[in-house]
Each structure stands twice: as C-alpha cells, then as structure tokens.
Amino acid sequence: MFQAFIAVVGVFTLIMMSLRANRLFAKERRLPMQWSFSGAVNWTAPRHLALALTPLLATFVLSASVLSTIVFEPRRGQEGFEIPAILLLALVFIGVHALHLRLVNKQLERDES
After folding, report:
1. Phi, psi for residue 43 in degrees, rounded to 5
2. Cβ neighbour number for residue 75 with a 10 Å cutoff
3. Who has greater pLDDT, 81 or 91?
4. pTM score, whole prediction
5. Phi/psi at 71 (nearest 5 deg)?
C-alpha cells in the first residue's frame, strides 16, 4: 500500500505546482499548451484547464496503476517492482508538469518584451 501513498504525494505535488502557477499566471486568460519546433505556439487553453490537465491525467493514471498493483498478482520475477513503477510514474508526471510550466513562463516572458 506504500505505492498508494507515493501516488497521493505525487498528485498533491502536481496540484501545489498548479496552484502556484495559477497565482503566477493570474493575469493570463489562456496559456500555451503546444509549441512547434520553431518555438511558435500551436494552441492555447484556458488557464484553469491548462493547469488542471496534468494533475487530472496523473490522478487517473496513478490510480489505475496503484489499483492494478493491488488487484493483480505480479508475474514471476517482477515482485517488488510495484513501488519503483509508481514512483517512476509520479516523478515523470512531476517532471513533465515542471517542464510545461517552465516553457509557459518563458513564452509569457518572451511575449511581454
């Protein structure tokens, strides 16, 4: 059940990151969601949706992953990988969310100048 604790901490971290970013980007109505290779913004989303997307996706993926580690028996040789797998998933979501927020911040700074 430690994997459930890791998932909850991961989702909580994502939510805190989004709340902090919401304060930082409070004056923006829409935030960039995708960039082309040239650096141009392809599409934007309303600020609240843009900041909620990753925590929501992580909640669904981590919940399904934790549930599968609890319900299903691991294959032979894969015992003990439940916690590292959930930890890796949570860290990837946190890293991707941090990257997205950094790119948004850089884009908004570029647009202001």
Report:
1. -155, 155
2. 8
3. 91
4. 0.90
5. -80, -45
Amino acid at 71: V
**Structure-block tokens of residue 62:** 């981590």
Contacts of residue 66, defined as CB under 8 A and 6 or more positions apart, other chains included, come to 3, 4, 7, 86
Give the CA angle between residues 32, 65, 95 to the nearest 5°: 35
pLDDT of residue 80: 81
Q: Interhelix angle for 82-112 vs 47-71, to 10°?
A: 170
- pLDDT for the residue numbered 59: 97
> Tokens 């901490």 — which residue?
9
Cβ neighbours around 55 below 10 Å, total: 20
Q: Which of 67-76, 86-95, 101-110 has the highest mean pLDDT?
A: 86-95
Among residues 109, 108, 17, 11, the alpha carbon closest in space to that of 57 is found at 11
